Amino acid sequence: MFVTAYLAFTVLVGLVVALEITARRLASSQTTRTAVANPAFQRFQNLFLKVYLLALWADWLQGPYLYKLYRHYAFLESQIAILYVCGLGSCVLFSPVAGWLPQFLGRRQTCVLFCVAYSICCLTKLSQEYFMLILGRVLGGLSTSLLTTTFESWYVHGHIEVHDFPKEWIPVTFSKVASWNHGLAVAAGLVANLFAEWLGLGPVAPFLLAIPSLAVCAWFVIFQWGRENSVASHGDKNEPLLNPLNAPKLQTTARARFWRSCLDGLSCLLSDRRVMLLGGVQALFESVLYIFVFLWTPVLDPHGPPLGIVFSSLMAASMAGATLFRLATSPPYRLQPGHLLCLAVLLAFFSFFMLTFSTVPGQPRPRESLLAFLLLELACGLYFPAVSFLQGRVIPVERRAMVLAWFRLPLHLLACLGLLALHGEVSGAGAGEAGSGTRHMFIGCAAMMLAALLAVVSLFTVGRNDADLRLEGTRLEGELEI
Length: 482
Hints:
Helix 1 runs parallel beside helix 13 and helix 3 runs antiparallel to helix 10. The protein is an all-alpha fold. It starts with a helix and ends in a 20-residue tail after the last helix. Helix content is 79%, strand content 0%. It is built from 17 helices and no strands.
């Protein structure tokens, strides 16, 4: 498995490089060229990217060795499952709070809160006390919720309200984030492997390595982001008023806006069947990914692969899928994102189907399991841009944040139920039966992917002649080409 992991990493990196070179040969859109040529936009974009990418880097460093660290502390798999459930449960609790905090504390302060909370979360990994590790998972859930909302909120506010740049330039920045994000994930696996295994510092090393990145991120937010807003707008509009007499009124107004946006998001979800079907696909697909994040380490680790290299290989497979999406949706291919979403779900179903045979208790086949995991990550690379495109088309911009928050609620609940079911199987298993819980979980994941595939087919049926679900410049069914 040691040689297999390095071979898979080498092949996937070569594939990613080849696909990326092919993708870059395609002509950039006029919008992208105009945006890049604007010095003020470049400066603002670079200021955001260096902060946000530091935050993402600190997050990715903690991915490869989380399960390994808990096993290093001699916790049982059932106990580790509870730790993961605590992290997912805190995501459920803090997701709506993460949308409200920037309105109350201010966007910059909330970004600093993220850095502080995530740093404390990393420090708790030094303790072998179960309660401290649970506290760390709760703080990790809060930090994850803030990471996915607050930084983007600051950027969008500054882009539109402070600098008055065209809204069409926003995707230019986030396409850069997506490109860098995959590269950071691959590099994080290599660096984590370097410190944890090659230098022999143990599985806690990557978590401690994340703290300096978070400290630098907080420094940029405090000193550079604050100066940026004050120069651009002569007063940071995104910060709350500090007058104590206004505090009760501000809290009441923020709560009223929050509950109104919650109800508007729920109304949008229930009134549009396309939105509901898309939410069902997201809940089923992404909840299964949380279960995969828990299970890939115990499936492969007993066979001795370098976990950091395996993690980098998984991220390289995801990067290959994302690059394939860019190529497939560009001229001259112009494949529809809905079709690629269907392909992604089908590939994920097939990968879990493979895992039900490669994880038979007493007859493990780790190479086949690694291949299935890589196939699943390739499907993820196709899935996320496809579902993001469809969300942008069917969900109104002003309601998108709360609709996506409603999507995440069943997503996290399904993942928690799956991990609790695994915890129950592992706790009740006799000698030699512990591995059956993992196989049963993969069977359940395959069933959920089959349900997601049915939801995608239903979405196609509902939106067969819906221009919102298609790329511009492609014909609808029944139309004649002119």
